[in-house]
Fold:
Amino acid sequence: MVEREARETGRMFYDAQYAQHQVWPKHDVEILDSGEIPESDWGDAIKPDEEGDDDGDDWSSLPQYAGLERPREYSEAAEEIRTVGNALFKIQDYKAAIIKYSKAISYLEYGKSNIPETER
Structure:
C-alpha cells in the first residue's frame, strides 16, 4: 500500500513538473538530418591546422595539435608566440597582437591542464 502511494506521488510530481513545460512532443517526431557535417566536408574552416597558421609563428592554432608533450614545451611555445605578438604590438597591429597573446595564453592553459598527477 505505501509503495503504491509513493509511486503514485512520484508520478504526480513528475507529471506536474514536465506537463506544464510541454517537454514531450504532441506528435511523432522523425529526425531526417542531425546536421552533423561529415569530416570529409570540414575543409579548412573546421579542420585543425596541424602545420602552423602561417601568421608569423610556427605553431598550430590549437595547442592540442602542436605535437607537444611536456608542460615546459607548451610554455616555450607560448613564449615564442608572445614574442611574435610583441613584434606586432610594436608596429601597432593591435588586433593581430591580441590574437597572438590569446593564442599564447591558450598554450599555457593547455600545457597546465595536461600536467600528470605525479608532477603536480
